[in-house]
Each structure stands twice: as structure tokens, then as C-alpha cells.
């Protein structure tokens, strides 16, 4: 058997055996080194792991994770919900609309789907349940809406994509993700509203007889939260700070909001949140570091080149191969997290992308939309696991609703694939390199 095959089979076997993705990548890379190179090359393991994470833009990942935790603890989600409720008022599907909008706004602060899902579910699920929405529907809608965080800037996944794919401007990626993220949210909203009206959920009266919040008061309370995405994106567009520096600004702004405006955050809480952010960031960085062994071995053995040549040889049609790649990424998204997918698949897909002349910014957004669908598609749906745990229901109860929202977001993905300017127009207007 060739070293390429040994490495791929070792990785697949370790995953099936239940070994965590990070260690599966590292061990499979070591198998590839031993079988195809010299065992002496195992001495490069330390260098490869260090080189994988010794990249300045990666500093933004733990900082944006910290930003999401701070805003969640500062009571921002509750204030956004009240403001959205004041604007929309009681009507069929009103709370469903609120859930989608708040998830999209929260995604513009945290860049993380699971964090977004947790913050919104804690606030929205009780209200939606009282209004007559079934908990499986509510949990699935919030999980699907939270997946837009992978598209709407700042996005942790897009930060990693800009590092893995040489020459891609992160600012262009952030701008390119905005309209597809909004489109994905609207695509989820259409079936949610139709289903709500079909079954008569939330029939035009305030929930539990409560007075709806006033627009003026709720707007003033939500203003600091609404200003956060404006601060981040405005600073990037004006050149005031880089994407990495934007993450620092976001953390500082979130801390000021929580400590002095909402007053729901205490100094001792910051220490706890630093610990939580360190643990989450440690998992992310461990995957990136150990994936460096797999990437180095695959490059030295020519595994990625061989796989790319095999994919290109499947068909002369770029459209057909794009569809096959999207299906493969969708399946991967159902089983793996976004970071692992980028690290495993991009070394293979970059030559394919270059061969067919696909725009790397547009292609990155397509991958992100596909991975977003995987975040709420069983069996391994990270966002859905979070919301079902909060809703106290079983994951299998959400499968039917999940399929409905998968079809909805897949339609948005198809539109972006057919009309690339949906993603590329804004970065082009802003003068970024696309």
C-alpha cells in the first residue's frame, strides 16, 4: 500500500474509533511520515506544530471568542430581544422573526455559532414556548439562525480560511460574508413564518398577557449592542485598525458595556470568562497545531496533490465538480467542526480552485455557507446540541425541522453559487482585493 493510502486510512480509522480529530490528524500524519519518509523525520513534529500556530492573525480567534462570552454574560441578548419584540410586535411568527434577527446581530459580535446559539436560546426559548411554539421547532430555528455567525463578520472560520489560503484578504472575506449571511437568515425566516401561520403559533396577543416593550426605551437599552458590529466593521473599513486589532477593540468595548452600561458584568466575572475563553481557544489551537503534522506529511508525500489531480480528473465540468465538492463539504460539516474541515480539505481543494479559476473569496463564502448548514444538521450538529440541551429535548426530535431549514439555507447557497456578485459586490465597492 502507498504511504498516501496508509495516512488516509489511519486518519479514517482513528476517527471511526472515536479518537478526537486533533489527535487523529497528528497520528495519521506520523503514520504517513514513517511509511513514506524516514522515521528520523519524526523529529520535525515539534517544529510543525509550532509553525502551525505561530501566525499573527490567529491572535484574533481567542479574542473574538472572549468577545462573544463577554456579550453573552453582559445581558446583551436580552436587550436585543426586547428591542426586536418592540419593533415587530405580537403577530404570527413574530418571535420566530425576533429569534432570527437577534441571532444574526449576535453573530456580528461573537463570530461563533455555538456561543450565539447558547446566548439566544437562553432568552428566547421560554418566551417561544409560552407563545405556543413547539420546543423542537424553536431549538432548531435558533440553532440554524446561529449558524449565520460563521458568515456575518467577524467570523472565526473566515479568519482561519484567510490563513490557510494564501493571498486572501481577510477584510474582503468579512465584507463578502455580510450579504450571504443576511440572505441565509432571510431564507430561514420564510419557512419559519409560513409554518408559524400554518399552525397558528403566537396569535397576535402579547405572550402571557405581558405588555410589549416600548420602542424608545428598548432601543436605548439595545444601542450599545447594536453599535458593536458598526464599531468593528467601521474600524476595518476606515483602516483605523486591522482585523486582529479589531478583536482587541471588541473585547475592550464588550467589557466597558458589561461593566458600566448594562452593569451585569463584574470584574471577578472577567477572570472567569478569561478562563472559559482560554479553554475554548486551547481546543481550537490544539486542532490547528496538530493538523500541522498532517498537512506537512501530506505535502511532503504529495498526498494532497494526488487527491487534487484525482478530483480534477473526475470531470471537465467545473460546475459538476463544484456541486460534488459542496456535497462532500456538507457531509463533512455534519460530522466535523469548521476548523477541522478547513485544515483537512483546503490543501486538497486549493489546487482544484486554481485549476478552474474560481474566485477564492467567493469559494470561501460557499464553503462557509455549507459548513453553516452542517452546524445544525444531525448527527453531529454543534449548534443543535447546544439548543436541545437548553430546551431539554432529544436531538432526534428536531430532525424533521432541521431538514426543512437545511433546504431553506441550501437555496441561499445555490443563489450565491449562481450569482457570485452577491458575495463579491460589497468587497469590490469597498476597494478590497477580490
UniProtKB/TrEMBL annotation:
Superkingdom field: Bacteria
UniProt KW keywords: Cell inner membrane, Cell membrane, Membrane, Transmembrane, Transmembrane helix, Transport
Organism classification: Bacteria, Pseudomonadati, Pseudomonadota, Gammaproteobacteria, Oceanospirillales
Stated name of the protein: TRAP transporter large permease protein
Chief location bin: membrane
Pfam family, one: DctM
Cellular localisation: Cell inner membrane
Domain TRAP C4-dicarboxylate transport system permease DctM subunit residue range list: 9-422
Membrane topology of this protein: Multi-pass membrane protein
Transmembrane portions of the chain: 52-71, 92-111, 140-164, 170-195, 246-265, 277-298, 310-332, 339-356, 362-386, 398-426
Subunit structure: The complex comprises the extracytoplasmic solute receptor protein and the two transmembrane proteins.
GO cellular-component term (any): plasma membrane
Xref: PANTHER family: SIALIC ACID TRAP TRANSPORTER PERMEASE PROTEIN SIAT-RELATED (PTHR33362)
Molecular function terms, GO-annotated: transmembrane transporter activity
Known role: Part of the tripartite ATP-independent periplasmic (TRAP) transport system.
InterPro entries, A to Z: DctM, TRAP_DctM
